[in-house]
Amino acid sequence: MKRFIYSLIFLAVAVTAVHAGTPGRSYILGFYNLENLFDTYHDEGKNDNEYLPDGANQWTEVKYAKKLHNMAVVIRAMADENKAFHSVLGVSEIENRHVLEDLVSQPEIAKANFQIVHYDGPDRRGVDVALLYRPEHFKVIESQSIPFTFEGSSIDFGMTAEEKDYFRTRDILMVRGLLDGEMFAFFVAHLPSRLGGKSSALRDRGGEIIYQRSMELMRDFPGIKIVAMGDMNDNPTDASMTKYVNAKEKISDVGPENFFSPFISMYKAGYGSLAYRGVWSIFDIIIVNSNLCDPPKGTLAIMPIVNKKYYARIFHQPFMANQGGQYKDTPKRTLADTGVEGYSDHYPTYIVVSNKK
């Protein structure tokens, strides 16, 4: 209940997020776990059987169309609140490029003209991550699908060579380009699930990969601004984020080899982006490197967007939450007994960058 009350307070003040106190250029950079955005066709070699018309979820074209509509409604609701669509939106739990093409063409968000960066990855269920972006704001220079590997890590995974060889998870997407003329790199991740006793070390490795690649980019492109986002399947205070990504709670503690995580203070204050068995967590994390914390004047910096205190937003409105029953006030997930009723089991998150005075 405490987390829900904090979220209601957050919702009440967040309507000033982008335009109040952020003069000049402002860009919304966000992440959304779309919770199993599957089409109705089988992808060869992938375990997508439950999302077929004859599968466990009886995933028909009607349900698929409703799911697309619901996702677009949430993205549009964020745009309505901020008076602007996202410039960059990372997404996870999407099956393929086809579902993204269907999503960005939905009438609620078609005018945003979102473009897509996506790679088919090795996840056995077939879910990937991707980046949606507005080409008038962000110009892509290069992109990579970074595989999840064990090489070069000092982490003790407690796994045999055979287990490591069999293991498959989502690749980490990296997209480098120019946001309003400034060099940026975006990482989009969906780190390994919490199922299984050895998963913590796997998420630590995911954080380590993001960190290592980020440091390489900072060496190759001095001054580059880095935003890493995703469903980390960990809270912002867990080791994958604080130790292996080296994320700090306060901007004043962020040095050239650190990240700033606005969600650490929010998590400690009681906010949540998803709930499981009555416990709220923030897995939908966005972190930024030092070049976005204290850049030269006139260039883009991360901005406080709620009461000049919190540097991130967990977005939700009442229609996105269960209104009664056992799961009252928690995210209203896609499937219900009567069909596609909800949206996602995660709330989307975003930050705002604006030119520093």
Describe the fold and architecture.
The protein is α+β, with helices and mostly antiparallel strands and 357 residues long. It has seven helices and 18 strands. The N and C termini lie far apart (39 Å). The N terminus is likely disordered.
The number of distinct structural domains comes to 1
Q: Major sheet, described briefly? A: 7 strands, mixed
Rg result: 19 Å
How would you spell out the order of helices and strands?
HEHEHEEEHEEHEHEEHEEEEEEEE
Structural class, judged by helices and strands?
alpha+beta
Please mark out the parts with pLDDT under 50 across 5 or more consecutive residues, or reply none. 1-23
End-to-end C-alpha gap: 39 Å
Strand content: 25-35%
The CATH first-level class comes to Alpha Beta
CATH homologous superfamily title: Endonuclease/exonuclease/phosphatase
| Helix amount | 10-25%
What's the helix count?
Answer: 7
Total beta strands = 18
Global morphology:
globular
Chain-averaged pLDDT: 92
CATH-scheme architecture: 4-Layer Sandwich
CATH fold group: Deoxyribonuclease I, Chain A
Strands, helices and their partners?
Layout: H1 2-13, E1 26-37, H2 61-82, E2 88-94, H3 97-104, E3 115-118, E4 128-133, E5 138-146, H4 161-166, E6 172-179, E7 182-190, H5 199-220, E8 225-231, H6 239-242, E9 247-248, E10 259-260, H7 263-269, E11 274-276, E12 279-281, E13 284-289, E14 300-302, E15 313-314, E16 335-336, E17 339-340, E18 349-355
Parallel strand pairs: 1-2, 7-8, 9-10
Antiparallel strand pairs: 1-18, 2-4, 3-4, 5-6, 6-7, 8-13, 10-13, 11-12, 14-18, 15-18, 16-17
